[in-house]
Design brief:
The complex is a heterodimer of chains A (338) and B (593). Chain A is α/β, with parallel strands linked by helices and 338 residues long. Chain A contains 13 helices and 11 strands. Chain B starts with 33 loop residues before the first helix and ends with a helix. In chain B, strands 14-13-12-15-16-17 form a 6-stranded mixed beta sheet, with helices on both faces. In chain B, strands 2-5-8-1-9 form a 5-stranded parallel beta sheet. A two-stranded antiparallel ribbon of chain B has the order 3-4. The chains are: A alpha/beta (338), B alpha/beta (593). At the A-B interface, helix 4 and helix 8 of A face helix 8, helix 10, helix 11, strand 10 and helix 16 of B.
Chain lengths: 338, 593
């Protein structure tokens, strides 16, 4: 059965925009989607996988290295001279990291079959390896066990997975876009992990009846005839895919004028975000959005549109402040852009 | 979610013997009140109908939550379900504490040792492809397992094998214990058999929906969405699943009013978080805290849509009859709806040799749980060498290779605040207590501790904030907490003790912090009277000591005598803080615990 198409997702504009931005510029650092149940979080993220254009990868490389510039730390490609690297087209991996996954499965471990059969000490790559150059999706990320969070923080920061276990000792590339989803009612996210996410969106169930009916109707039509439903959307899907590809091409040539940087800095100052990660993400996100829009340069409008997603999870926590973080960002936006 | 099963079963052809003419309670019985709906003789046929639908397409409907104690009624329902399944349909029980390798697939121990190489086997989920998995004690399912089940329900696969199964979640919870919302939201049916006696099950075995009768609805999906909105169902999985049920009932033909009604009754009514009709809304709702599970939309907004035709009203009428009676009670009481959105339950009952595996170490498997994979891994590099020594066994495992799991038990603490919200000083005291709760929560990330709050005033006590580690939830639960009235100290301590015992059952360590001036003047019965109220408070305090729950009493009164004796009776630490602010209070609690 084909996946529910991305273009058929009704409403949830902020989440869709954030996912597209992450697809254009993976260096932004992933997307966190927080919200109620049954709002299409999982659907959107799984739909993104089907949408993304395939990538070129070295044949046989368990880490999906790019044939033109394999990662320095790739143990597979390092041993191959450039001429001998064959490439193939592969779908961009979207790897699920289930709650309570064992460290073995995440990090990778000794390949038992080869160890027992041939007596060879070989490495069996884990989920982190499979997610390289793709997406790592964690549903209910706020309930993730602490030891896995620590592990992820380390890998997400360095882009390299270091394995030291069962007599194995190696490093391999693990650069991925972290996509997390969860419901804040069921537990808060560790602030360190929160900070790693480039963008944070809040999704809520649509409040107006018309939208709700549209969602149910789309789902019903899809369930009754998945192939037909997807075929009817193929044009829209291709259009979005092209938009992503074009935006990726444009991205390096896009200017970020000083005025936009100034705005970003003013916003972060007004909100008192820690460190410079806020400014950086805001700038990169605005640039990716401008690329998606096909704009010549980053404008105030781009900054304004991405500021809530880029900043709302970076505000210093004040437990006694009743207003939500989104409201605080909106307030700062109104001040800075007045 | 991936739609109907590929089994090809035509849900409509549900071969239901027509022993009852029709289940739909249409316009013929519009006057039914909410409480009548729980009449057991009405629940049972619906339960059977759900079973029949589920049997036709386990994966499409996701499954059912069945709330009932173990007993003949539940067995009978399960038997009925099983009998309806096509022969040969997989039917498995989820063993408690199942490991990943058994659930999702992993190494087959016997075959691995015999063959001398790892032999993979399908997990329980893949083996149950096309069938049903019965989950006993589903309310205590660890979140990790619940997450895997939910993800497998979404994708129809487990470890890249096909696993299109349905779940029968047997909920034996008491009070606020409920099945993880992540799972409950994904399954179509919720059946509450707890009030049904075995005598009620003698009703003609099978119910039927007459799909011929009833005018085709012009806009069936719209009707279901409006109904869901009217009932305060936020998740869109509700109307989506209801639409699936309606389609199944309508035999993939046009959906009639009867099918809509039955679908709404089976799927939407049990998810209701508010009553559809404005005139039934509790009059004092303005001052009572709104149930936290619902959005802030006005109740009447959805119930008076201009185009709503008479047919839709009739459906709504029929559905209202099927809403659980206790929802009405909860709304009238203005109480907190506890069954939704629980804090992530991680704790397991504390006992020897339990906990979450965090790794393995060399050790004797008789004194722990063997970690097979780690053992084989340890033995693997030596195989060539050992074989050279003349061994003939395919795998040579020596004692040095044996690895056992290291288990870590959670030792999280749940602080239960029990706050005196009575009298004139209550407002300030409450505000400080709220501040302290939020400060403690904000600092509790690292320790992963939880906080709960019980407030008592007027005639009784109320659980304002069920144990949670979510700041978001705490804020919402605490906003608009009212103060004033008498001091039912005994009821307050009782309520705190109940919460604490529930916390302990969940495997976490409870601590009670009581904020009061100790001047009780309302007895458990709700009547005034200082002497009796004081006696009962001491009695409740002694019960707390007997239960062995550690406590801290913070005396907020200026003179303090009552609070001191209560603290002595519960063997609690005692602090006098007549003018404590939130910061001081949270510091005191942290220091004392």
């Amino acid at each position: 059965m084909p996946t529910f198409p991305f273009s058929a997702i009704v409403a949830q504009d902020e989440m869709r925009q954030a996912l597209l931005i992450a697809a254009v510029d993976p260096s932004i650092g992933g997307v966190l989607v927080f919200g109620d149940r049954g709002t299409g979080k999982s659907t959107a993220i799984r739909a993104l996988a089907a949408l993304l254009p395939p990538m070129r990868a070295v044949v046989g490389c368990p880490y999906n290295c790019d044939p033109d510039s394999p990662a320095e730390s790739c143990p597979h490609c390092a041993s191959l001279p450039g001429a001998r690297r064959k490439s193939e087209k592969k779908p961009v991996p979207v790897v699920d990291l289930p709650l309570g996954a064992t460290e073995d499965r995440v990090v990778g471990t000794l390949d038992l079959e080869r160890a027992l059969g041939a007596g060879v000490k070989a490495f069996e790559p884990g989920l982190l390896a499979r997610a390289n150059r793709g997406f790592l999706y964690i549903d209910e990320v706020n309930l993730l066990e602490d030891h896995l969070v620590d592990l992820l923080l380390d890998v997400a920061a360095s882009g390299v997975n270091t394995v030291e276990r069962e007599g194995l000792s190696l490093r391999h590339p693990a650069k991925f876009v972290l996509v997390g989803s969860g419901n804040p009612e069921e537990g808060e996210l560790r602030p360190q992990l929160l900070d790693r996410f480039g963008l944070a969106c809040e999704v809520a169930t649509p409040q107006d009846i018309a939208t709700r009916i549209a969602v149910v109707r789309a789902r019903d039509a899809y369930e009754r005839d998945p192939e037909g439903f997807c075929a009817a959307r193929a044009g829209d899907e291709t259009a979005i895919r092209k938009k992503i590809l074009l935006a990726r091409e444009r991205l390096p040539h896009l200017n970020v004028p000083d005025s936009a940087l100034e705005r970003a800095a003013q916003l972060c100052l007004a909100l008192g975000t820690d460190g410079l990660r806020g400014e950086l993400t805001l700038m990169r996100t605005a640039r990716a959005l401008a690329a998606l829009d096909g704009a010549e340069a980053v404008t105030d409008d781009h900054i304004r549109r991405v500021a809530p997603a880029a900043l709302r999870h970076r505000l210093r926590r004040n437990p006694l402040d009743e207003s939500g973080s989104t409201a605080r960002v909106e307030r700062a936006l109104a001040d800075v852009f007045s | 979610m991936s739609g109907r099963g590929a089994s090809g079963a035509k849900p409509a052809a549900v071969a239901l013997p027509l022993s009852r003419p029709s289940l739909t309670r249409g316009p013929s019985s519009p006057a039914e009140g909410g409480e009548k709906a729980d009449a057991p003789q009405r629940i049972w046929p619906d339960a059977l109908l759900a079973a029949h639908l589920l049997a036709t397409d386990p994966h499409g409907f996701g499954g059912a939550v069945v709330r009932a104690g173990p007993g003949p009624v539940r067995e009978r329902w399960l038997d009925g379900l099983r009998a309806t399944l096509p022969p040969g349909t997989p039917w498995r029980r989820l063993p408690p504490g199942i490991g990943d390798d058994s659930l999702l697939g992993g190494l087959d121990l016997a075959a691995t040792l015999a063959a001398g190489r790892p032999v993979a086997r399908a997990g329980l989920l893949a083996e149950t492809d096309g069938g049903l998995i019965v989950v006993p004690m589903a309310e205590r399912l660890p979140p990790g397992i619940a997450a895997r089940l939910a993800s497998a329900l979404d994708t129809g696969t487990a470890s890249e094998r096909r696993a299109r199964f349905g779940l029968v979640l047997l909920d034996e919870g008491e009070g606020d214990e409920t099945v993880a919302e992540a799972l409950a939201d994904r399954v179509a049916f919720r059946i509450d058999l707890s009030g049904v006696g075995i005598a009620h099950c003698d009703a003609p075995a099978v119910a039927a929906v007459n799909t011929e009768v009833g005018n085709p609805e012009a806009d069936p999906l719209g009707t279901l969405c409006r109904l869901a909105e009217a009932l305060g169902i936020a998740s869109l999985r509700g109307p989506i699943l209801a639409a699936r049920v309606a389609r199944a009932l309508a035999a993939d033909g046009p959906i009639g009013t009867d099918a809509i009604t039955a679908a709404a009754r089976l799927v939407l009514a049990p998810r209701a978080t508010r009553l559809p009709a404005p005139e039934e809304a509790p009059p004092e709702e303005a001052e009572a805290p709104p149930p936290p599970s619902e959005e802030d939309g006005p109740t009447d907004q959805a119930t008076d849509p201009a185009p709503a035709d008479a047919a839709e009203d009739r459906v709504l009428e029929a559905v209202r009859a099927a809403i659980p009676a206790n929802l009405l009670d909860q709304l009238l009481a203005g109480g907190v709806r506890l069954s939704t959105a629980k804090a992530g339950r991680v704790g397991q009952p504390a006992a020897a040799r339990t906990g979450r595996p965090i790794g393995s170490r060399r050790g004797d498997p008789r004194r722990g749980r063997l970690d097979l994979l780690a053992t084989l891994r340890a033995a693997a590099p030596w195989q060539a060498l050992r074989r050279a020594e003349g061994e003939t066994r395919p795998i040579v495992v020596r004692r040095d290779d044996l690895r056992i799991r290291i288990l870590r038990q959670r030792t999280e603490t749940t602080t239960v605040f029990c706050v005196d919200a009575s009298g004139s000083a209550a407002l300030e005291r409450l505000a400080e207590a709220k501040g302290a709760v939020e400060l403690l929560l904000a600092e509790a990330y690292v320790r992963r501790d939880r906080v709960a709050l019980v407030a008592f005033r007027g005639a009784g006590a109320e659980l304002v904030l069920p144990p949670t580690r979510s700041l978001t939830r705490a804020k919402r639960g605490l906003s608009g907490l009212p103060g004033g009235g008498g001091t039912p100290l005994a009821a307050g301590i009782d309520a705190a003790l109940t919460v604490a015992l529930g916390v302990r059952r969940g495997g976490s360590r409870p601590v009670i912090v009581l904020l009061t001036d100790g001047r009780a003047n309302v007895a458990r019965s709700g009547e005034g009277g200082r002497a009796r109220a004081g006696q009962e408070a001491l009695q409740a305090a002694r019960a707390l000591r007997t239960a062995g729950v550690p406590a801290l009493v913070i005396d907020t009164g200026a003179r303090g005598e009552g609070a001191r004796s209560v603290a002595d009776a519960m063997a609690a630490r005692y602090l006098v803080l007549p003018r404590a602010d939130a910061g001081l209070l949270s510091a005191a609690v942290r220091a004392a615990l």
